[in-house]
Design goal:
20% of the residues lie in helices and 28% in strands. By secondary structure, the protein is α+β, with helices and mostly antiparallel strands. The chain folds into two domains: 11-102 and 131-150, Immunoglobulin-like (Sandwich); 153-191. The strands form two sheets. It has a four-stranded mixed sheet, with no helix packed on it. Strands 2-3-8-7 form a four-stranded antiparallel sheet, with no helix packed on it. A hairpin with a 3-residue loop joins β2 and β3 (27-33). The N and C termini lie far apart (110 Å).
């Protein structure tokens, strides 16, 4: 009986798992279908920049493994990243992402509120697997809209920045005036 080679290379087969979003008022759920995976074969992490990193790897046979890697934006301005948690139940990884509660307005801020028209977000497309579990790659991708805009800066911060800019400009103008006066005074004494 021949012994298996220790140096046998593992071949990785990458795939895109079937994902489904459920959106609620206070939290969003991401459900990822992972047939034949075990909890120990999965990894869920969140970066300091609010990126959810989901990966997994499982053996198919002695020389072949199946793996996936997925990144999902979970911005700190929308989700409570410290409260995000995941459960693996019945071949499904369920990631719960609680939304941040809107902060109460500052009673000392007397500025006019800024209003803008609000456009309704497009409804996510429904993805239905075909018979036999074969799902086209175009239908498999998760439906998530991520906002890359900067968070709204409060009016207090904007006022402080404007005041600082005006103060810096005044200091530059004053320094130029002092320099001009010094040059004109020194120039008059040399004649």
């Amino acid at each position: 009986m021949a012994a298996k080679s220790v140096d046998q290379e593992i071949v990785y087969e990458e795939f895109e798992p079937f994902c489904k979003w459920q959106r609620k008022e206070d939290r969003d759920f991401l459900e990822i279908h992972l047939q034949d995976f075990k909890k120990e074969q999965l990894k869920v992490q969140i970066s300091n920049h609010g990126v959810l990193k989901i990966s997994g790897e499982r053996p198919i046979d002695a020389s072949k493994h199946m793996k996936f890697y997925k990144e999902v934006a979970a911005p700190n301005t929308k989700y409570d990243t410290h409260a995000i948690h995941a459960k693996f139940i019945n071949n499904n990884l369920l990631i719960t992402m609680p939304k941040l509660k809107p902060s109460s307005p500052d009673p000392t801020d007397v500025s006019e509120p800024v209003s803008a028209p609000v456009a309704a977000a497009p409804a996510p497309e429904k993805v239905t697997p075909r018979l036999g579990g074969n799902v086209p790659a175009a239908e498999v991708q998760c439906q998530m809209q991520s906002c890359r805009k900067r968070p709204f800066m409060g009016s207090k911060l904007a006022k402080m920045a404007a005041s600082l800019a005006v103060t810096a400009l005044a200091a530059v103008v004053l320094a130029a005036y002092v320099h001009f006066m010094y040059k004109s005074t020194v120039g008059d004494d040399s004649n």
